[in-house]
């Protein structure tokens, strides 16, 4: 069952237990924490801190600890099995209330902002072997706790912590041991580099060849590869082939733990399949590293990206392999069928309504790594949003027909406001973007413009209105937002959701004001008939007029 649009009513398709199911909240909080770690670790290089005296040197090893913890967590996930995860969820639900989600996230963000600024200050200190100032180290630890503890409080009630640890101690210990074993096996597999070096470097060469415009630096005997002024020497320790050892141990662990559910001997094919996928991921990682160094920042590429991308690829392959195997009749004795989530008590509406926007933002971050002011891969945003919409189609509000007359009018008014308030970018930024578009062949120029128009007119309005109007505005009124009629709003809900909507549309001055005003207008469009589809149409009309202004009248600053 899905939420239906209409006269301000909604039908929640879940049980009361589903409203409190912790699994989705855990994944969301873990994703937030992981994103924060990636951002700070890609922004700063902790290696110079290793040379400092005493406890100060420990800070330099923090970058090693996080990937190891991720591998251990993935191992625990495999060992635990669905039954234990369900038991853990039930245990959390029976030990009181967790801390409210929104205040905890706000405290987390405030602590993270302070942690980020203090980390920046630490990395700017003179590079000596002396110890860091003690107050600074204490402050860093305090801000670290202020970042992590609120999320823990939002995930698990205090009364459930000790029972949960007792219940899962054996699995945690086993997962930790397997994680360490997999990590050591990964390090040992680095010896394979000599035998696979030529194949790896050749694969990376052909991956970057179409984008290098004949400016490739390639010396396979010295393991040197790059584009223009940026090139890297791929040493065995940095080759990423340790992922073969990691995934081998991980896959064997999975085969043993799930032996009763898998079909043998065909399940043994998962070992070479996983190794192949990790090797392909390693080649992609090296190609992306070169792209980041050429188009974004050599410092980010060399100080953080090469290691972080490696274990992210590993975790993605490992968990995707498990998800695929459990749904495959070829590998699994009892494959999971596609579930009708209307009867699934673990379904979480928050994840459903935010999925398209998260897919959009995630794709923007990834494609942004290989662009410099101009996203050649814009079309991937459309694909990502469409996939998220398709996966969640059973639960999203169904569009109503016919559309209202007021939605297009609101869209036109917002367009006029946007033209008046949004400032032009600086001349250098605009010139760079125009030059990069002009470098493309005419056919690709029109293809890019067409995809940008389709994305901004169709997929962006759907993703943003589901997140900011259908979800956030009502979530600020009541935690059970599906029970809040769409004709209902409060000043606080409208202002906060509109400010959040305005933020990514321009952080400075008039641009943020224009985005916030647009958010209020689209909220009004939804309120008039209680239909999110009206807000989508208003938003789409605004963006369609912006596309016309860019393509027909040359106002390309509106897309900069």
Helices and strands in order, then pairings?
Elements: H1 16-20, H2 22-43, H3 62-93, H4 101-123, H5 134-155, H6 161-188, H7 193-212, E1 216-219, E2 224-227, E3 230-233, H8 242-257, H9 270-295, H10 298-326, H11 349-368, H12 379-391, H13 406-421, H14 427-438, H15 442-475, H16 491-502, H17 509-529, H18 532-551
Antiparallel strand pairs: 1-2, 2-3
Structure commentary:
The protein has 560 residues and is an all-alpha fold. It has a domain at 349-559. The chain is 66% helix and 2% strand. It contains 18 helices and three strands. Strands 1-2-3 form a three-stranded antiparallel sheet, with helices on one face. Helix 13 runs antiparallel to helix 17. The longest helix has 34 residues, at 442-475. The chain is globular. Residues 7-20 and 338-343 have low confidence and may be disordered.
Quickly list its features:
three-stranded antiparallel sheet, mainly alpha, 560 residues, 66% helix
Please state the average pLDDT score.
75
**Roughly how much helix do the residues carry, as a percent range?**
55-70%
Number of beta-strand segments:
3
**SSE string:** HHHHHHHEEEHHHHHHHHHHH
Q: Please summarize the sheet with the most strands.
A: 3 strands, antiparallel
Going by helix content, strand content and strand pairing, the class is mainly alpha
Rg result: 25 Å
Q: What is the overall silhouette?
A: globular
Strand content: under 5%
- State the assembly state of the protein chains: single chain
- Could you list the spans in which at least 5 consecutive residues all have pLDDT below 50? 7-20, 338-343
Q: Taking strands numbered 1, 2, ... along the chain, how are they ordered across the largest sheet?
A: 1-2-3
How many helical elements?
A: 18
In whole angstroms, the N-to-C terminal distance is 40 Å
């Amino acid at each position: 069952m899905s939420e239906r649009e209409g006269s301000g009513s909604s039908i929640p398709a879940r049980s009361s237990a589903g409203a409190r199911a912790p699994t989705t909240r855990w994944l969301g909080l873990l994703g937030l924490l992981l994103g924060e770690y990636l951002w700070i670790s890609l922004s700063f290089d902790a290696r110079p801190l290793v040379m400092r005296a005493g406890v100060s040197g420990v800070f330099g090893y923090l970058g090693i600890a996080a990937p190891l913890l991720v591998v251990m967590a993935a191992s625990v996930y495999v060992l635990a099995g669905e039954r234990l995860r369900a038991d853990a969820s039930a245990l959390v639900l029976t030990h009181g209330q967790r801390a409210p989600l929104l205040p905890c996230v706000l405290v987390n963000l405030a602590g993270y902002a302070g942690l980020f600024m203090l980390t920046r200050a630490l990395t700017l200190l003179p590079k000596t072997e002396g110890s860091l100032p003690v107050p600074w180290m204490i402050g860093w630890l305090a801000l670290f706790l202020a970042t992590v503890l609120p999320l823990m409080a939002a995930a698990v009630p205090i009364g459930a912590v000790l029972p949960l640890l007792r219940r899962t101690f054996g699995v945690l210990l086993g997962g930790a041991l397997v994680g360490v074993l997999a990590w050591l096996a990964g390090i040992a597999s680095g010896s394979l580099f000599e035998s696979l070096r030529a194949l790896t470097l050749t694969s990376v060469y052909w991956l970057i060849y179409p984008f290098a415009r004949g400016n490739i630096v390639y010396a396979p005997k010295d393991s040197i590869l790059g584009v223009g002024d940026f090139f890297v020497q791929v040493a065995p320790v940095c080759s990423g082939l340790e992922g073969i050892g990691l995934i081998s141990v991980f896959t064997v662990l999975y085969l043993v733990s799930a032996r009763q559910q898998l079909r043998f001997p065909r399940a043994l094919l998962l070992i070479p399949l996983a190794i192949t996928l990790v090797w392909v991921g390693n080649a992609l990682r090296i190609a992306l590293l070169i792209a980041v160094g050429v188009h974004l920042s050599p410092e980010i590429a060399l100080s953080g990206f090469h290691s972080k991308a490696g274990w992210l690829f590993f975790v993605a392959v490992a968990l995707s392999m498990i998800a695929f195997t459990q749904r495959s009749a070829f590998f699994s004795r009892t494959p999971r069928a596609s579930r009708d989530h209307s009867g699934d008590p673990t379904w979480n509406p928050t994840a459903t309504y935010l999925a398209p926007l998260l897919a959009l933002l995630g794709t923007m971050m990834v494609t942004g790594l290989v662009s410099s002011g101009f996203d050649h891969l814009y079309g991937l945003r459309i694909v990502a949003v469409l996939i998220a919409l398709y996966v969640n189609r059973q639960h999203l509000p169904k569009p109503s027909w016919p559309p209202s007359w007021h939605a297009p009018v609101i869209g036109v008014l917002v367009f006029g406001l946007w033209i008046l308030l949004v400032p032009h970018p600086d001349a250098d930024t605009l010139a760079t973007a125009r030059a990069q578009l002009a470098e493309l062949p005419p056919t690709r120029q029109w293809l890019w413009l067409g995809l940008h128009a389709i994305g901004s007119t169709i997929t962006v309005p759907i993703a943003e209105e589901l997140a900011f109007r259908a979800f956030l505005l009502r979530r600020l009124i009541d935690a059970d937002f599906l029970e809040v009629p769409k004709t209902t709003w409060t000043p606080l809900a409208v202002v906060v959701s509109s400010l959040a909507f305005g933020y990514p549309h321009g952080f400075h001055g008039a641009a943020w004001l224009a985005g916030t005003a647009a958010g209020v207008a689209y909220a009004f469009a939804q309120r008039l008939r209680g239909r999110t589809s009206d807000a989508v149409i208003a938003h789409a009309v605004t963006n369609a007029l912006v596309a016309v202004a860019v393509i027909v009248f040359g106002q390309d600053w509106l897309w900069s």
